[in-house]
Amino acid sequence: MMNRLRTTLEMIKWEHSIFALPFALTGAMLAAGGLPAWRVLAWIVVCMVTARSAAMAFNRWADADLDRANPRTASRAIPAGTLSRRFTLGFTIVCAALFVFAASQLNRLTLILSPVALAVLFLYSYTKRFTRWSHLVLGFSLGMAPAAAWIAVRGSLDPKILILTGAVLLWVAGFDVLYACQDYEHDRTAGLNSIPQAWGIPGAFRAARLMHLCMVVMLFWLARAFRLGPISMVGIALVALLLLYEHTIVSPTDMRRLNAAFFTLNGIISCVFFFAIAADLLYRV
What we know:
Shape: globular
Oligomer: single chain
CATH class: Mainly Alpha
Helix content: over 70%
CATH superfamily: UbiA prenyltransferase
Number of helices: 13
Strand content: under 5%
Radius of gyration: 19 Å
Largest sheet: none
Order of helices and strands: HHHHHHHHHHHHH
Number of strands: 0
C-alpha cells in the first residue's frame, strides 16, 4: 500500500502544486485585502490540491499510450506497469469528487463553476492532438487559480483579478513551450502538435521569451490596478530577474539545465511573487 501511495504521489507530481498554489493564495489575499478567514483558506488549498491531482492523474490516464512510445516518458507509472489505468482513472474520479465537495464548502458560485473548472483541466490532455496552442490551455488551467480563489472569498468575480489570470497563463505557457522542446522529435513522429513542432526550437524559444515579457508587463499592470506598494514592485522586479536568468541557462543549442529552469526556478518565482504581495497587503493592514 505504501509503495502504491509513493508511486501515485510521484505520478501526480504533488510537489509541483507549488507552481499554482501561491497564485491562488495571492488571489485570495487580494480579494480579502489581507488575510481571508482561515476556513476559506483551508478549503481553497483542498480545492487546489484535489483539482491538480485529478488533472495530473487524468493526463497520465489519457496519455498512457503516447507516454509508452516516448523514451522520455516510458518510465511513467502506467507505461511501466506500476499502476494500472483502472486505478488511475479511479483515483481521478475520487479527486474530482473531493474537489467538488471542497468547492461546495466555499459558496454557491464555486460549486456551480467546479465542473467547468474540471472540464478545462481534463480538456488540456487532448489539445496537443489537434492544436499547437495546447500550452495556452495549460496556462489557462493554472491561471484559473487566482480568479477561482477570488470567487471563493467574495462569491463573485471582479475583472481586475483576470489580469493575474492572464499573467499566470503566459508564465505557464512560456515555460511549457520550453519544456516541450525536449519532445520535438517524438511529437513530429507521433503527429502531435506543439509550438516547437510547428515553429522549430529557435522559434519556440522566441515565443517563450515574448510570453514571459508580456507576463511581467501584466504583473506591473496588476500592481497598478490594485494600487499595490513598493514591496510588490520589488517582488515583481525579482520575478523579472528570475525569468531573465531562466532564459540565460537554457538555449536552443543547450537544454541540459531545462529541468532546473522548469522545476526549481519556477517554484521560486511563484513563491517570491506571493510573499511580496502578501507582505505588501499585510503591511498596509
